[in-house]
Amino acid sequence: MSYPLEGIRVLDMSRVLAGPFATRMLCDLGADVVKVEPPEGDTTRLWGRDIGGNPGYYHQQNVGKRNICIDLGQPRGPELVKALAARADAVVENFRPGVMARYGISYDALRQVNPALVMLSISGFGQDGPEAKRAAYAPIIHAESGLIARQAELSHAGPADLVVSMADTNAGLHGLVALLSALLMRQRTGLGQHIDMAMIDATLVTDDGLQYALEDSKDTGVLPNDFWDTAAGPILLSMDFRGIWKLFASNYGVQDPSPPGATVAEKAAMRRDAIRAFLRTLPDRESVIAVFNRLNIAWADVRSTANIRTQPTVLHRGSITDIDDRAGGTRPIVQSPYRFSNAQSGIRGLAPWKGEHNDAVLRDWLGAEGSDADYWRPALVPLE
């Protein structure tokens, strides 16, 4: 079986997360992804445990890619990017709007050398508009999109950022969908195009709870999920509490302790206490899970990420695998989520060192060897 994107060339000008996440997925799907890294290195080389010359955060987002280190401050740096873009199917970048143009490698400049090029630009607030120049990382978008305030309201706590960089990964995934759609459209038109993916747009469209705020209809939504202390440990039940109460009352005879005239809030609190008392009578994990399964309630262990590899489905599907750590051992990495019936996907190589594939990329993409390769060397930073 072959990979779905075999033969597709992607020039990855991005850094940190939103762009690298999208290009990591393209790489897992078979594209030849060449990461262009600046002399100072991707910021993520500062984060995580350094094993074999690659820190953990950089490693997880860049496995399988090739790496060429270009100094855009050198006269031939932007010229080399143009030469590579002329051979690419797609370019991905997530600089602040205007940065690519400052180096002479904007979409308008690159399409002059490659009219079929698809370019994905990911930014916080879009390529134009009143906030286009704002610095934007995931927490900024989490705050501006209302996620942090809503989380604080539901948890009855102060504002706190989300524990995942959702704005980045959502923008990366929506950018990936747009890029693949543009490549498909190119088969009909022969032309590429520029994709303007704003992190705030991607976050809003992925927010399934936003419509309650837009229509001032929070009272019509489901109640927040409840957590229960049991002999099986803390368990989350994913069902509106009104439904949970009916199931426990009708199937296990749990009595309503609320008096006549109690408010809705008082009834809910007393009924929760009654279910907690019933759950405390269950002596072990098997009996707890048997109750939830009998009632057909979706349940989950409140699991620590430290032992995520023991989660049964993660273990069964090989969702976390081990690859060469470039230091004589192995290190864990999350595997591609794509499972095809008639195609391959998944990690195809190691995370590259900065500048590791300078010569190979010049040769494979540009056919540059000997004196031809020497022409580009002033723009390159040697392997580190």
Secondary structure elements and pairings:
Blueprint: E1 9-12, H1 18-28, E2 32-37, E3 50-51, E4 54-55, H2 56-62, E5 66-69, H3 76-85, E6 90-93, H4 99-102, H5 107-113, E7 118-123, H6 138-144, H7 147-155, H8 166-189, E8 193-198, H9 199-206, H10 210-214, E9 226-230, E10 233-237, H11 241-252, H12 264-280, H13 285-295, E11 299-301, H14 312-317, E12 320-324, E13 330-334, H15 358-366, H16 371-376
Parallel strand pairs: 1-2, 1-6, 2-5, 6-7, 7-8
Antiparallel strand pairs: 3-4, 9-10, 10-11, 12-13
Protein described:
By secondary structure, this protein is an alpha/beta fold. The protein folds into two domains: 9-209 and 338-379, Rossmann fold; 225-305, no CATH class. The chain contains 16 helices and 13 strands. Strand 12 (320-324) and strand 13 (330-334) form a beta hairpin.
